[in-house]
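Sanity check

After download, print the first record. It should look like this:
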Amino acid sequence: MKLILRYTFFLLPLLTFAQLKSPSEFLGYELGTQFTRHHQVVEYYNYLAQAEPERMNLVEYGKTNERRPLLLATISTKANMANLENIRLEHLKSTKGEGTPTKGIVWLSYNVHGNESVSTEASMQTIYDLLTTKSSYLEDIVVLIDPCINPDGRDRYVNFYNQFKNSPNQVDPFSKEHHEGWLSGRSNHYMFDLNRDWAWLTQVESQQRLKQFNKWLPHVHVDFHEQGVDNPYYFAPAAEPFHEVVTDFQREFQVTIGKNHAKYFDENGWFYFTKEVFDLLYPSYGDTYPTYNGGIGMTYEQGGGGRAGLGIITSIGDTLTLKDRIAHHYTTGLSTVEVASKNVARLNEEFKKFYQKKEYKYKSYVLNGNPDKLEALGKLLDQHEIEYKTGEDNTIKGYNYTTAKLGTLKSSEKSMVVSTDQAKSTLVKVLFEPMAKLSDSVTYDITAWSLPYAYGLDAIASENSVGTISKTTATPSFEVPKEDSYAYLADWNSMKDARFLAALLRNKVRVRYAHKPFTLDGISHERGTLIITKSDNKNLKDFNKILSNVAMENTKKLISTKTGFVENGKDFGSSYVDVIQSLKIAILSGEPTSTFRFGEIWNFFEQQLNYPVSIFDEDYFNRVELEKYDILILPDGSDYKSFLTDNIKEKIKDWVKRGGKLIAMGSAIDGLSTDKAFSIKERETEKDSTIHLESFEISEREQMKSAITGAIFKANVDNTNPLAYGYGDTYFTLKIGDRAYNYLENGSAVYLDEGANEPVSGFAGSEAKKKISETLIFGTESMGRGQVIYMIDNPLFRGFWENGKLFFANALFMVN
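Expected C-alpha cells:
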C-alpha cells in the first residue's frame, strides 16, 4: 500500500481509530480548506494528549513575545512512553561513548517561518496518522513534534490572509490575498528570522527551544519550510558546500532518506529536486545546527509560502492548493519516520561514533579581553552546553585571530579556554574556527561567523591542549555609594556598560562622560568613562540607593572619588566633559526599510539596551513633528531613493541643523549621498567596459566575483572619535555586501585602509575586494548644531555580532 495517495489522507476511514478525531473532524472543516489559527492548533494537540495519555506527552516549553504557547509533543508506543526517561538517558550516554540505546529519536520542526504556513497544518495530519494508521513506525522510534516554532509570525500571516481573502478564495496571483504587506508573517515578533538564530540564541523562542533540544539531541531533525510558488519540492540530500565536519554517514543517510521520499513522489507524479540551493555550512540553521550536534539535519521546502494562500495559479498555469502543499509535507514527514524506523541500529551506532574523540587541527581556543565580553560569550556557551575553563599563566602559540597568522598570546586566570576535548567538540570547531573551509563559493548564507571576532576578543587557536583550571565565577564587588564621595566613575567598553547607563537614565540619574583620557587617584580612565556626581543629582530623592541598586542589578563596579580635580587630563567641570541627556529616540519603519534590519534595532532597544523607543511608519512620516525627538534612525532597506523625496530630505536636514541626530544605515545612506548637503559619497571604481564572452553556465560563478557573502575584515579604528569610544585601534567588521563609500574628512571612525580588503574569514570576490579598498565603515559629520552618523556595515547583524553593539550605543549617547 502506498504511503499516500493524493488527498486520501483527509478521507481515511476511522474504523480502527474511531475514538480519535482527525484534524478535520476536530476543527470542523476539512484540513486544507482554511488556515488554522494557533490557538486551534494548541487545542487539537491538547485534545490528542488527553485522548492518548499513554502514547503522547505534550509540554509547553515556553511562550513567545506575544504570549503564545510553544509546544513540544512526544509520541511513541505505550511501552516506549512508559520507559521514556530511560530511553532518553540511554541515548544521551552515547555522547560519552557509553550505553546501549535501542531506540531512534526523530524531531520534526514546523513553521519556523510564520508565513510558510502549510507546515503547521501538515503537522496535525502527521501526528494523527502516526498515532493511528502509521503507529507501527513507532515500535523503535520516539517522535518529537514542534507544531509551530513561530506562532507570532504564523498568526500574523493567518490573520492577514483571513482579513483579505476573497470568498471563495481567489487563485489569481495578483489578488490582494497573495500580497502581504511590509510586516509579513515570516519573522517573529521582533522581525527576526528564527531559522538563522539556532546558534546565536538572540530570541526567546530559540532560547527556550534549545533547552528541549539539548535534552534529546535527536538522531534525525527535519525543518519544514516553503519556497517560491513556482518551485517544486526540495528535500535532501543537500547542496554543496557541506562543512568539512559533516560525516560520511550524515551525507549517506541524507541520500537514503531522499531516495525514500523520491519513491513516494514518483508514485504520485510530483516534481522535486535535490542537491541544489540549500547547503550545509552556516551553523545557525535548523538543518546545520542539529547536524553539528550529531544528527541528520535536513530542510524540506515546499513551493508556496506567503503568496500561495489557499490556492494560486502558478506561472505555467497550474493551480497549487493548500491541500497539495499539506500532502507533500505530510508525505516527507512520514517517510522520514519510516526510514528512521528501519535504521535504528545504524543511527545509534553512528551517533555514538560522532561523539568519539576527534583529532581536529585546533585543540584549544584561548581568549583574552574585556571581562564583560568574556562573560557574554560564556553565557552563550552555557546555553549550548559547551564547556570552558579559565587559563593558567602561560604563553600560548598558535593562529592569532588579530594578526591572521601564527603568533602568541599570554594566558592567565582571566583567560577563557575552550577545548575540543569535550562532547560538543564539533560544535566548538564550527563556532570558533578562524576560517570555515569552503568547497563551493556559491552559498546560501554568510560564510564567516567566528565567535572571537563576533565578541571582539583576542584569541589564539592552538594545535595543542592548553592547561586550564576549573571554571570559577567571581562574585562582583560593589561599593555602596558613600556620603562623602564627590563622584562615582564607571568604565565604558561593553554592552553591559551601555545597559548600566540606560538604567541610570531611566531612573532620572544625571550622568556625564569624558571626551579625553584622565588620571585620578592614580587610576587611568579612558574616553567615554561615565562620571556620576552627587552635585548633578542633589535633587534626586534616594540618589545613593538608586545608584547602588542599578549598579548591583547590572553587576557594575563603581569607583568613588572625593574630588573632581584630576591629576592628568580634564577636570569634571571642563567642556571636555559632557552631560548625557535623556533622549527621545525614533526608528523609521515601513516600505523603505528591511523588516529584518528594522527588527534588529527594535530588539536592540527593548531586549538588549532596555531603553524606550518610538516607531514611525513611512506612511505618516510627513506628519511627524521631528522637533519632539532627539534621534532618528533610518534602518537599512531597499527603497530609500523613492522615500527620500526633496521635501522629506529638507525636513530631515532642517531638523538635524537645529540639533537633531540622524543615524543612517546601509541603503539609507544611498538616499542621502546624492544630496550635496551630506558629505558621504559613494566610492567610484573604474569599470571594465570590455565585453567578455563566457558560457551561460558559468555566469553565476562569474557574478560571485562581485559578491561578499558575509565575510570578516580587519578595520582601523579612530578611537578619539566619540563613535568609537571604548574600542581599541582595530575592529573586525562583518560585511554582507560590497557597498562602498569614501572616507569622511574629519569623521572616519572606522574604515578599511589601503590593502585591508582581504577577508580574515569568509568569501569575498575579486572585484568586490577592489571596490571596498580604502572605504568607510562607520563615520560622523556635523551639520549645523546636529550630527549625522553613517553605518555602512551593520553592527547589529542578526543580533549576534556582539562587538558591534557598542558602536550603536556610542551613536546614541556619546556622539554629541
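If your output differs, re-run the checksum step. Summary of this record's structure: The mean pLDDT is 94.
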